[in-house]
Amino acid sequence: MAQFQEVLKQSALHPKPAGLVLQYGTSGFRTNAKQLDHIMFRMGLLATLRSKKTKATIGVMVTASHNPEEDNGVKLIDPMGEMVTQDWEEHATQLANADQEDLLTALKNIIEKEAINMSQEANVFVGKDTRSSSASLSQAVLDGVSALGGHSKDYGLVTTPQLHYMVCCQNTQGKYGEATVEGYYTKFCQAFIQLTKNTSNRTDDQKHLCLDGANGIGALKVREMESHLKKELQISLNNDGSKGRLNHQCGADYVKVQQKPPTGIKINPGERCCSFDGDADRIVYYYTDSEGTFHLLDGDKMATLISTFLKELLTQAGLDLKIAVVQTAYANGSSTHYLENTMKVLVRCTKTGVKHLHHVAQEFDVGVYFEANGHGTVLFSKAAEEKIQQLAEDTNVNDKRKKAALLLRNTINVINQTVGDAISDMLLIEAILAIKGMTIQQWDTIYTDLPNRQLKVKVADRRVIDTTDAERRAVTPAGLQEAIDNLVKKYRQARSFVRPSGTEDVVRVYAEADTQVRNLFSKLSLLLILMAVLLRLKNIWKGIVL
Length: 546
Ligand SMILES: CC(=O)N[C@H]1[C@@H](OP(=O)(O)O)O[C@H](CO)[C@@H](O)[C@@H]1O
Ligand SMILES: [Mg+2]
Hints:
The chain has helices at 2-11, 37-54, 86-97, 103-113, 134-147, 160-171, 181-196, 204-207, 217-225, 252-258, 299-317, 333-342, 354-361, 382-393, 399-414, 422-436, 440-444, 480-488, 520-536; strands at residues 29-32, 57-62, 71-77, 123-128, 151-157, 208-212, 234-238, 273-276, 283-288, 294-297, 323-328, 346-350, 366-370, 376-380, 452-457, 466-468, 473-476, 495-500, 507-512. It is α/β, with parallel strands linked by helices. The strands form five sheets. A five-stranded mixed beta sheet has the order 1-3-2-4-5, with helices on both faces. Strands 7-6-8-9-10 form a five-stranded mixed beta sheet, with helices on both faces. The relative contact order is 0.09. It catalyses: N-acetyl-alpha-D-glucosamine 1-phosphate = N-acetyl-D-glucosamine 6-phosphate.
């Protein structure tokens, strides 16, 4: 077939370095940008096949999110703006790792396995972040699409969630919004303005937000969006990319993991601040108090604020809809306890990775999901949206119910339901704080985090660790879980687990414990040190050697 001849010809321009093997990780391929040209070309091919198979537009985003500037990566986006399904992740890995001379065979295997009609039209949307490598890598994606005869639309510089939004808009014939960046700003900013318009007496302080853009795409896009906010939210933008390096000592991941403010930003005591990550699909909030102590409000705090707000509105509206919060093992134990016992909200725990949280959240009328690191959103079932819409239009309901229904309707419109979105989450949180007349300090005191630490340990082969119970318990290697249990039971409210990372070649170690008495803190550190030592012990388990 002529198409395959073209693939062969084009692929020679995007050759695979011999011996290189890469896995489709937690959210796509991610490594040093120099190793990715062939991967991008092949993901262009795969997205074209996926589009033919689903008869819908597919998205390909070139980004390595919070990772350093010299890395890059690629994320595939399915028709409704969701992450690509797991069986296609396997196709992606196979196609990515096929030797140059086996590429056509690998391609044909997928076509056969998925019974793809090659005469079906294909459409692929492509976007990229601000990394210097992104321009040529996104061109490689476009080359892959055209080699298989697909049509592509290059959105250029966009945030990851913006591209998810575009794909969803396109495949729902505009019902979700208009598939342009302008359409994105209009939809979300209008909803924000509607939500906040009746909040009386918002002071200038309440309208002001200090933002760390991680020197990335989020900063550019916030600047573009600003005029749509009509001064209802005044953002002072730091780390906008004009000086500093992408994600270098700044951004949501740095702030969350280091538990300190980013560099490149001057924070006044009590000022409300937030940080985006490098592709603007994560956000965390924080402030420093008058004594200079840093306070982090992470994904768990956001999930709590949002689910409390929604639960109150559903009650006021008299709507009997099932709401749940979906977390991972990294959620602070205090947040889970508060949600279950004080808020009486159903909490579910899943494996790390947004795709897992997203799917569980879809099981409920209203599913709020957040990773502790600040990636999350809210999903409303179709039935829930219809009930809210009906109530908002009903002329026979009392004022209280009507008001709640209208707020719920605007809340739905301010949320990007396709994926966690730093811009949309920011607008949602800002609106909730405005409506509740709440300061960041008041939000912070809803519950107190258990002190916690996260470490990474490099081992020879992280795959020897296998986990169960949403990654909270290790099944292999033998003896590991027992050792953890023995350590943990010595401390109050202590919890710890180890799991292999899906994005880096490391094992992650997490621990938290009740350290209300100051000197117990040293015991928590001790617990962590012991665990790290445990992992470092050479030859204790076959396969783990430092
Ligand atoms: C503890 C942690 O923050 N893990 C992150 C990280 O996954 P790992 O599988 O832990 O490497 O990257 C994922 C993709 O960005 C993100 O979804 C996840 O939350
Ligand atoms: Mg990201």
